[in-house]
Amino acid sequence: MSIKKILVCMAASSLFSGCITTPTMEVPGDIAASSDEITATERSSWSGSLANETFTLGQYKVTKVNRDWDSNQSNTVSIAKLDINSGTIETGYDYTFETPSGEYYGRCDVKIESDSLASSGFSIEERSSSFNCACKTGNGTVGKTALKATNKGSFAGSLEADGENYTVKALQQHGETSGYRIDSINKNSTPSGAVEVYKPGRIWLDKDLNEKQKDILACQFVGLMLYLAPEPEVDIF
After folding, report:
1. Assigned domain for 201 exists
2. For residue 157, what are the domain limits?
3. N or C: lower Cβ tally within 10 Å for the chain?
């Protein structure tokens, strides 16, 4: 994560915490009807490598959040009057997820790739983003999330937890992503949960899931709650 982004997050929190109304996600009706809602507490409005991002989520505790510094690479090649630009940003973070039955280790990695053609009077650009997150115990990986997005589209993809497979779809609100919902592939697209990305944040877990499944899904939902879009040191888009 860039120093610039850390300072912006901290300054914005300090200056406006008393006058900005925090948005909340509009919960889909089928999710609300079939799930238990859990609200994050004791969570700071600050984010970044210099912030304490520990928080509580019902019976769960999120600790030891550690963010990588953003890695930026860019390259420009000029042919005649045509500039060909390419760039890559990579970042990631890890965290410990404490449950009544034990600890999980979460790790998320984000990669953004961009290519553009520019000349006087016009430009064409494309970018692709990937988000991969896994929750592990001492016995190995128990759940993983794999999402992709193109250009300015929202993330979408799949999630696996304890042998169950789910689709992941972004929820849009006010022109931005407010959260994600998951639906079970194994159970004919049955709604299985959701996560809000607005702070302090909430998650929803299907009432019919067993405790182990709930723990693993909650661990992966935390990965999405902690996501911060990387900021380029140079303009690669």
Report:
1. yes
2. 3-225
3. C
| The model scores a pTM over 0.85 | no
d(CA 166, CA 187): 9
Domain membership of residue 236 (yes or no) is no
CB contact set of 236 (below 8 Å; sequence gap of 6+): 72, 74, 85, 86, 87, 88, 89, 114
23-73 per-position pLDDT tens digit: 999 999 999 999 999 999 999 988 887 889 999 999 999 999 999 887 877
Q: Give residue-wise pLDDT tens across range 79-88.
A: 656 666 778 9
- Tokens encoding 133: 């997150």
DSSP code of 80?
A: T
Q: b/e per residue, 199-227, with b = 16+ CB within 10 A?
A: bbbbbbbbeebeeebbbbbbbbbbbbbbb
CA–CA dist 178, 83 (Å, integer): 36
Distance CA 141, CA 190 (A): 24
Structural Rg of the chain based on CA atoms: 19
Q: Which of 237, 223, 2, 5 is nearest to 113 (CA)?
A: 237
Alpha helices in 172-230 (DSSP H): 211-225
Q: Tell me whether residue 234 is in a domain.
A: no
97/51 Cα distance (integer angstroms)? 18
Distances (CA, A) of 57 to 38, 111, 155, 200, 221: 6, 27, 24, 10, 11
Alpha carbon distance 217, 206 (integer Å): 10
Asked if residue 154 belongs to a domain, the reply is yes
3-state SS assignment for residue 212: helix
